[in-house]
Amino acid sequence: MMAQDTSGRSRRRWRLLDRDAGLPSLLLRSLTLKLTLAFLGVGLIGALLVALFVAQMTQRAFNQFVADRGRATLVAELAQYYQAHGGWDGVSSVLEPGPDGQPGLPEHRPPAVVIDVDGQVVLGGGHSPAGTRVSAADRAGAVPINVNGHVAGWLLPDLGPKGPGPGSPEATLLAHIRQAIIYSALGATAIALLLGVLLARTLTHPIRELTDATQVVAKGALGQQVVVRSRDELGTLAASFNRMSVDLAHASALRRQMTADIAHDLRTPLSVILGYTEALRDGKLPAMQEIFDTLHTEAQHLQHLVDDLRTLSLADAGELTLTRQRVAPQALLERAAAAYRPQAEAQQVALTVHSAASVPEVDVDPERMAQVLSNLLSNALRYTPAGGTITQSAAVHANSVQLRVEDTGAGIAPEALPHIFERFYRADPSRQQENGSSGLGLAIAKSIVEAHGGTMGVESAPGRGTHFTITLPLPARSPEIPAGQRDGVHAAMHRQARDA
User: Fold this and answer.
1) Would you say 133 and 122 are in contact if contact means Cβ atoms under 8 Å apart?
2) Rounded to whole angstroms, how far apart are CA atoms 389 and 42?
3) Residue 338: band (very low, low, confident or very high) from pLDDT cuts 50, 70, 90
4) Most exposed: 107, 229, 321, 475, by fewest CB within 10 Å?
5) Quick check: 228 and 235 in contact, CB under 8 A?
6) What backbone phi and psi angles, to 5 degrees, belong to 104?
């Protein structure tokens, strides 16, 4: 009770914290809001940086333009003054105040530092007062003042460009430029916010659909589908979810069908055994050898079905034990043929083996591969009429070895061909447990082949027979097995085939 009370108080506390958190809590839950704020932040920062850089560059370029224009005007006025007065005496009168009390030098001109031909400052300012001398090296950036084709002096830009004063046309222009930049930044931010909202909703809408669909699937409604709205990563995710949902629904249907098939296959032999044992217990039937044989046959069928189910469960779990060794494909085929040759002769079916001597050995579990080939030969004999043929062959294909089992039997219908490796599948539903078949043989065979790293395929057409192909990878190079040991393995397999 104390643990439950503590848990309840914790949940109430988190609910209160979540309710009081307000916007931070909404940020934690809403991806749309997160993306919108992210786009807004990026747009705002970008607009501010652009506005700042543009304003600084505009101010600097404009000041330089105004300074260059004012300097050119001042050079022309100084040249006129020198030509009119024959020297630089009284050149300071250029800076005398005008009628409004302001200096005669317009505000857009830089401070005037004039140097005569001897390097002496005749009009000082800033760091170069009148009367001082300026060396030739310091005059490197000075603008020459030409009068009648000769240099009368230099204009030295001592203090650099000066910004326009308040109320001047230049200052008004710069103010208008700054205002336009601010409005542009605000407009860019608003557009970024709008695009952020639209893009965030576009991104999160498929995610919400996927979330709703997963919740429906979690409640057991398998096969749920969502609309694939694009070909990007979200579209790929939606398509993958649709495939997963379909596969889950198919797997669930197969599981239900398999459960029903197992119950059916177990019920039949159990009913026979229970019927006979009850009759024997009640004395309604005499104890005869035929009854015991029937009971033994049904018990064997149950044992066979249980073994098949166990093999499949081990294969599904990846725990199927394989005792691998190097074996010649011809030895595998001959062993399987020897086991079924008496039955083939009784049915008047020719059973042959073809394998080239150049086919390399494969690294397999001989007993498991014998189980695979036994299943294929058993099926082939079941559907091949008298006078038909069954051919086993081995050949090298690319970097693999192919084992083929071909028959001239009735073949498989096209609609049944994609399902023959499914568990408990029977192309003819009316054939139940014929010859002790459980419907698991081909599923087990394919699982064993895949456990070896190979593949298993089938080609068939009604009236043209069936061709099963087993593709096994070539083994990696390893130290050669002594010839005596290799011959001993092959001899043991031949003895097993002869004894079978």
Assistant:
1) no
2) 76
3) very high
4) 321
5) yes
6) -70, -20
Task: Tell me the mean pLDDT in the region 22-50.
Answer: 68
CA 304 – CA 387 distance, rounded (Å): 31
CA distance linking residue 319 with residue 272, whole number of Å: 34
> CB-hemisphere CA count at 13 Å for 488?
5
Q: What is the mean pLDDT of residues 429-449?
A: 69
Structure-block tokens of residue 226: 């969502």
Could you give the CA distance from residue 305 to residue 324 in angstroms, rounded to a whole number? Answer: 25
Is the Cα torsion angle 253, 257, 260, 266 positive or negative in sign?
A: negative
Confidence category of residue 276, pLDDT binned at 50, 70, 90: confident
Q: What is the DSSP letter of 417?
A: G
> Rounded to an integer, what distance in angstroms lies between the CA atom of residue 160 and that of residue 323?
92
Count of C-beta atoms within a 10 Å radius of residue 358: 7
- To the nearest 5 percent, what fractions of the chain are helix, strand and coil? 55, 15, 30
Q: Pick the residue with more confidence: 381 or 186?
A: 381
Nearest partner of 409 among 428, 381, 368, judged by Cα: 381
Per DSSP, the residues of 431-482 read --SGGG--S-HHHHHHHHHHHTT-EEEEEE-TTS-EEEEEEEEPPPP-PPPP
Q: Which residues contact 465 (CB under 8 A, 6 or more apart)?
A: 384, 388, 406, 407, 408, 409, 411
Confirm if 390 and 405 have CB atoms less than 8 A apart.
yes
Residue 262 CB-density burial (10 A; 0-12 exposed, 13-18 middle, 19+ buried): middle
Answer whether residue 404 shows pLDDT above 80.
yes
Model confidence at 374, pLDDT cuts 50, 70, 90, reads: very high
DSSP 8-class letter at 425: -
Cα–Cα distance for residue pair 111/161, rounded to 1 Å = 8
Q: Is the pLDDT of residue 353 over 80?
A: yes
Cβ count near 22 (within 10 Å) = 9
- Does 169 or 205 have the greater pLDDT score? 205
